[in-house]
Each structure stands twice: as structure tokens, then as C-alpha cells.
Specification:
CATH topology of chain B: Fumarate Reductase Cytochrome B subunit
Strand order of the largest sheet of chain B: 1-2
Largest interface: A-B, 30 and 26 residues
CATH class of chain A: Mainly Alpha
CATH superfamily of chain A: Cytochrome c/b562
Helix content of chain B: 55-70%
Structural class of chain B: mainly alpha
Number of domains of chain A: 1
Strand content of chain A: under 5%
Helix content of chain A: 55-70%
Oligomer: heterodimer
Radius of gyration of chain B: 21 Å
Number of helices of chain A: 5
Distance between the termini of chain A: 42 Å
Number of strands of chain A: 0
Strand content of chain B: under 5%
CATH architecture of chain B: Up-down Bundle
Radius of gyration of chain A: 18 Å
Number of strands of chain B: 2
Largest sheet of chain B: 2 strands, antiparallel
Distance between the termini of chain B: 85 Å
């Protein structure tokens, strides 16, 4: 019995590890992903919202494509069991409820992906106002996750 | 024998109702998020201006607007709780609530200036806080200060209802008209305030808010948007 349990734990751990590495590594990867997203949303904010006179179509499109690429990379894989506890670059702010709210999480996460892909599409047109509107919608989807599963310090 | 006294001067009433509107607007914009966060920042700055206004008006406004006239000192509080406080304007317990509200709103505005939603909004002082965990804590404190504000507002409204129902006193009408009927024995001459002081206070408050947004560029210039015509080639 005990051996079976140990075996099950080893198997489970091994599967998780094979997918995205141990807990700390998953947390580190996802924190990196979000800070890279932050760099790119910051670039769009500056050129589209704060200083539209500096708008550069290629620059903004590159940032929007990077955001879409991260969104489409399958971030869900980095949310393995136990990753609400642990430290990557810093302590994770994932709420333990994440694992009970899988359905709601799926909805808000898909909203983000859809909005990110739409932003990339619109950014390619170079229409500043349309980009600004979609950028705001993207921000709302970020907030969807922050409100649902991110600990407020 | 009752006489009508102008207990709340026009600037105080304006301050009160603009604050109500601004707090509601700040809550709505923060809840909806997205591009409205920029408006949240602007409304927050407006609230900062209102608080500075109130601070100054607490010294040069008319009688019942002055902090000195309603300091909730222990003797006053004790007298009030024993039912032996007689006066007009804020009673000692209400005064406690006034100072608590102003202090919490100051904390809310102060932390908001340093906060970020980790999406696309940064308060004007966010870049001045170097340490990342302090940044996170200040943003978190902003949320907690708001939750505490809800408690204070609930108490505020509950007291108004209590006065209306139990003590048969309407507190809302005087906050609209400024006038209140009081026993003649308690009525004192209202002094202070005035148009010139009001306008001066408005200008000072506006100047401070402007300084908060512009001055930060002088202390620590935020890197401006790249103006290069072409992005890097790699």
C-alpha cells in the first residue's frame, strides 16, 4: 500500500516535471511571462495612450504580436498542482482557490487569449484609435484574472 | 425659541458632494478597469485636490468648518456620551468619524499615487518607489484603505438614518442648504470663510495637484516614449 502511494506520488511528480518542470520552475516561468507581457503592454500604453504623437506602427505591432505569442503559448501548463505555494523570482501570488475555480479560470483565461489575438490583428492595421480601444479591452481581461485568482498584497 | 444658523458654508457643502461623486466615480472606474484606469487616476488627483482644500479650509473656513471647533477631545467625547454635550456643528462622535474619513481618504490617495494595477496603470509616484515588494504592498494597502472606507461610509449613513428615525433630526437637508434651526441659546455668530479665501484655497489646491503630476518629472524623469522612427532591427 505504502509503496503504491509512493509510486503514485513519484509518478504524479514526474508527470508534472515532464510537462513544465518542478513547482519553483513553473512559478518562475509564469512570472517571467507576465513581466514580459508587462514590458510589451507598457510599450503600447506609451505610444498609443500616453503619447500618440510618437506612434510607430511597427513598434506597436511587434509588441502586440509578442503579447499574442505569450497568450498562445499555453500558459495553463505553468499552473500545476501545488504551484500556489512557492517562490519563483518572488513568492507566488496565486490564490489557492485557483484549483477549485478551474471553470471560471478557463473563461477569464480564454477571454485574455481572444483579446490578445484581436489586438495583434488590429495592431497590424495601424489604426491608433482602434488599437487604443482594443488595448483597453485587453486590460479588462488581465483584470479578470487578477480579480479572480491573484492575491492582493 | 429657535433661530436659523448657516452651519455649513458653501465651500464645505461643495466639498462634501463633490467628494461623494468623486469617490463613486473612482470606484466605478477601478471596477471596470481597462482604459478607464486613466480616468481613475484623474479622479484620484481630483480627490487629492479636495482633501488639500478641506485641510486648508479647516483653518480658514467659517466657524463650523474649522477643525478647532470640533476637535473630538476626551472631555468633549465623555460629555457627549453622557448626554451632556450641547452645541451645533459636528458633535464629538461625529467629529471622530470626520477625522477618520479624512485620514483614510488621505491614505487612499497617498497609496494610489504610488500604486499600479500591474496592467497598464501607474500612479505618478510609482516610479519613485524602487523596491518591488514595497510597490506591491502600497498597491495592496490602497485596496485595504478602500475597504476600510466602505466601513466608515456605512457608519456615516447608518448614523444619518439613526438621527432621522430615532432622534427625528434631518442631517441631509442642512448639508444641502447649509442652514439649520437651532435653539437660540446655542446660536453663535458664524465668522470666517468668504469668497476670496475660497478662491485662494481652490487655487492652492489645484497648484498642489498640478505639482504632483509635473513635479515628479523633475525629481525622477520617467523615460519618455521612444520617438525613433524605426524600431530596433533585432
Amino acid at each position: 500500500m505504502k509503496t503504491k502511494l509512493t509510486l503514485a506520488i513519484i509518478l504524479a511528480t514526474a508527470t508534472t516535471a515532464a510537462l513544465a518542470g518542478p513547482i519553483e520552475e513553473q512559478i518562475r516561468f509564469r512570472q517571467s511571462a507576465y513581466s514580459f507581457l508587462g514590458w510589451n503592454t507598457g510599450k503600447i500604453k506609451k505610444q498609443v495612450v500616453d503619447h500618440p504623437e510618437t506612434f510607430n506602427k511597427d513598434y506597436v505591432a511587434a509588441a502586440a504580436n509578442a503579447i499574442a505569442a505569450v497568450a498562445n503559448s499555453g500558459l495553463g501548463e505553468l499552473y500545476g498542482a501545488g504551484t500556489d505555494q512557492g517562490t519563483g523570482w518572488k513568492t507566488s501570488r496565486l490564490k489557492p482557490e485557483f484549483f477549485q475555480k478551474k471553470d471560471e479560470v478557463t473563461v477569464v483565461a480564454n477571454n485574455f487569449n481572444t483579446a490578445a489575438n484581436e489586438l495583434a490583428k488590429i495592431a497590424a492595421t495601424g489604426d491608433v484609435n482602434a488599437i487604443k480601444t482594443q488595448f483597453g479591452k485587453l486590460g479588462e481581461t488581465c483584470k479578470g484574472c487578477h480579480d479572480l485568482i491573484r492575491i492582493k498584497e | 425659541m429657535k433661530v436659523t444658523v448657516r452651519i455649513w458654508d458653501f465651500p464645505i457643502r461643495l466639498f462634501h458632494w463633490l467628494l461623494v461623486l468623486a469617490v463613486v466615480a473612482a470606484y466605478v472606474t477601478a471596477t471596470l478597469g481597462g482604459n478607464l484606469m486613466d480616468w481613475h487616476g484623474r479622479i484620484g488627483s481630483f480627490i487629492l485636490g479636495l482633501l488639500i482644500f478641506r485641510l486648508i479650509w479647516g483653518f480658514i473656513g467659517s466657524t463650523y468648518a474649522r477643525f478647532g471647533s470640533f476637535l473630538p477631545t476626551l472631555p468633549r467625547l465623555a460629555a457627549y456620551l453622557r448626554g451632556r454635550w450641547y452645541g451645533i456643528g459636528h458633535n464629538p462622535l461625529g467629529a471622530l468619524a470626520v477625522f477618520a474619513l479624512l485620514a483614510d481618504l488621505s491614505l487612499l490617495v497617498g497609496t494610489g499615487l504610488c500604486a499600479s494595477d500591474d496592467i497598464a496603470f501607474e500612479g505618478p509616484f510609482y516610479q519613485l518607489v524602487d523596491d518591488e515588494s514595497s510597490r506591491d504592498k502600497l498597491s495592496g494597502l490602497h485596496v485595504q484603505a478602500f475597504n476600510f472606507l466602505l466601513v466608515l461610509v456605512a457608519l456615516h449613513i447608518a448614523s444619518i438614518v439613526f438621527y432621522r428615525v430615532v432622534k427625528k433630526t434631518n442631517l441631509v437637508v442642512p448639508m444641502l442648504t447649509g442652514k439649520k434651526e437651532v435653539p437660540k441659546a446655542l446660536a453663535t455668530t458664524v465668522i470666517g470663510g468668504g469668497v476670496f479665501r475660497f478662491l485662494t484655497t481652490v487655487i492652492i489646491s489645484g497648484a498642489v495637484v498640478w505639482g504632483v503630476w509635473e513635479g515628479v518629472e523633475i525629481i525622477k524623469p520617467v523615460e519618455s516614449a521612444p520617438v525613433t522612427a524605426t524600431p530596433p532591427s533585432f
